[in-house]
Amino acid sequence: MNRQESDMVFWMLLLWVPLLLGVFVGTWLRKHVHPQLMARSRLLGRTANSGATTVVNILLIIAWAGVMMACSGMAAPKTLAWLQSLGALPIQPSLGLLRGVSLFAAFMIGYTGGAMPRGASTQQPPGELARAPGATVSRAGNGQPVNKHSNMKVYLVITGTIAVGLGLGMLNTGLKKGGFLTTSDVGGLPELARIQEQLRPLEACSLTYQERDRRGQRKYPTTVFIRTCTLGEYISVTIPVPATWAARGVGFEMLRSSSSEPWEIMVEKNDVPFPDLKEALEHFAPLIAAQYPEKLREQRDNANRMDRHLDEQARERDRVEKERKERAKTSYPE
Description:
alpha+beta
């Protein structure tokens, strides 16, 4: 098991800690705090026990599960790259922050599930005996008895179905060609240390060659795409490379969260022979190191010129609009 796979297993196991803590906290609040709150407000009690509230809670569990999966494991670097491409954000995203979000999301999944009501009412009328051994009977709004154990079974079935569906969806995505379960990080191999040293000084956090599309086909066989680490900078620098490497099936993605960190080199180990990958990287690295800084400067100059042009156009539109309004004020006869 390589370093990346070990990290993924560690984080998947670690997510159980906040998940179980959330279940404990949610269950404790449901048993000891929620009844007191609902006893003070009939409207609150009806709302908490309504079917709509259950549906909302289930949707929240699904949403938090999506956040947890996007911010943990091998999906975290791609989520980080996507966040960095969105533009100005209130805080600077990082892999550490995303992992913290995944832990919080796991807690919220457990908390939401633990706090969900288990029946239409938790109060048993005085003198009412349980209808069956081990079963607690309560009454719904129409006076009919409600078996809380039956409601627990329904909840477990719904939760289990959602968990299985999310797991199968995640497994299907990961097992696709280029998915997070079919790629491995080989950036720490000693044979690639010289590549790391050549590309480490670059102001870049994403480097992609022959990325797979949704159908699993590799694309752009003559181009390496490079993105910077600057938050909100929509610049992609392209470096031309010979198409001969595409014919040999070479494809990889290099990721990192800052210029000071080593590269993660993601590759399909069962599809790309290591000698071909190493030879391709040795061929690409000096080309990228030589061409990327100048091309990045040109791209930024072009982007700055475009921004200045757009600002001038905006100022001209504002000036014309202001003059038009001034003329309109005195254009009608009294």
